[in-house]
Amino acid sequence: MGSLASYRRVFANPALARLFIGEFVSSIGDWLYLVALLVLVFRSGASPLVLGIVGAARIVPYILLSVPAGIAADRYDRRLILITTDVARGVIMLALTALALLEGSILLVVVLSLVAACFSAFFSPAIGSLIPSLVRDEQELGPANAAWSSLDNLAFIIGPAVSAILIAVGTIPLAFFLNAITFLVVAAVLWRLPKVERTPRPASHKGVGETEAVEAGAQAAGSEAAVSFRQAVRPAIRPLSGLGIINLVDGFVSGGLAVLTVIIAVEVLGAGDAGTGWLNAAIGLGGLLGALVAGPITMGRRLEVPLAVGGVTLGVGVILVGQSTVLLAALAAMAVATAGMLLLEVVATTIFQREVPDSIRGRGIGAMDTVTVSAYALGAFLAPILAAAMDPVVVLLGFGILMVAATIVGTLLVGQSSAAAQDPAADRFTGLAIFAGLSPASLEQAARHLERRRVSAGEVVIRQGDPADRFFFIVDGAFDVTQVKDPGGTPRFLRSLGPDEMFGEIGLLGRTARTANVTASTDGTLLSLDGERFLDLVGSGPGLTSRLLDVHRGALSGQDR
Description:
alpha+beta
């Protein structure tokens, strides 16, 4: 499927189309505002040092607040978080409009811009966690990320151009006002999006009956706090480590490249300030092309190769920028580098969303954002220092080699996890009547993480008293459920289970220890799902907990199912 076809599929999804168009308009407004803000501060008589401090200070809220923003995205309605932050920023933009018109205190302008940045820090964890909830199936996830990146890069091209026109005719307040309008428009769009229902996670209820525990836990408010981030992320720690290394170096190289662009244009190419403008235009164009290419690529099941291609292309492009002796060659190299960067980031985001359970996705994105933004700031700080101490060409060569090396190491860690392969029996699991009404995307994500396990007759799969950590689906074979009422007593037979039946869910839902034994009475095959991913699946479907309880009540009392 080509780029246009993959994007048509995304924009045929009404919820995604409204979200992306609304945020695209808002992104244009953001660039109007950012350019106008720096010009306003500069025109107030502030020194270049103060201007640099203002620009750098806007990064601090992202470093400090990305993780808290992720926690909020995991606990509360992500749509309402976006609406709240958009309305707040809209009000701030109206205040900045008034200050610009009245020529008010520039210190107050800077303070308000920092407050706006604090609200902006909540955007990435919220939208990054919301998008997977709105796609209709997992094949739509990658193109959705690519479509959003394409629109964001297009806004990067349009916004500064419109801002330049407004500034040229002396209407800086209008730039702030238009940005305020875009925030209010996107808030209205978000309000009309479907609310994504997320069932609260059950808290632990030791010492009560397991059915009562599940019913109490399913109604517990704020039970997300009981979920262990470390426990939930453990199954994906290897691929996430790889993505973390890649994002860390990508942020560092991107920050350094952004600053070195000026030095390369003026000192190496002799193209002056105009050369800087052209190189930034190449950044926007390359990013747009990279995002467009990423659309069809991310529909595939195996993403480790595109991940490597994106990172290596970025690294090689950075090296070529330094080796260029004429502006045209530098523009082409810069476009190649940023195309690779966007491909890398879209693929990495898609792998991340596939691997991380929904219950901790906001916190995961917040942590990644903190790493990336911190690395970006470090790169922007060190790059000019290194360039002053040695040839800028050598600095870019080092940055490029570092990016290639990080990509190789990161891709090896990601490994086969991005293959998105499903067990041949997964269709039987996703086709269970109990899962009717769940979104295909939620079922596909769960099916990708099913693990096949062969068992022999007499093997104990679940032992009474053990922690509940996995859910099981029977592919073939027979299994007996027994229970010991009193310590040292004789096991009491409860029932037999066979193909297309399941067990282990009640201990997970109630956060209780296993209350029965499940033993293979014949050789058989199971599909198992990590407990956190099972709870994610249950949480994605309102009423599923009750349906599982109904199945449990229909079986013999007291068994651990």
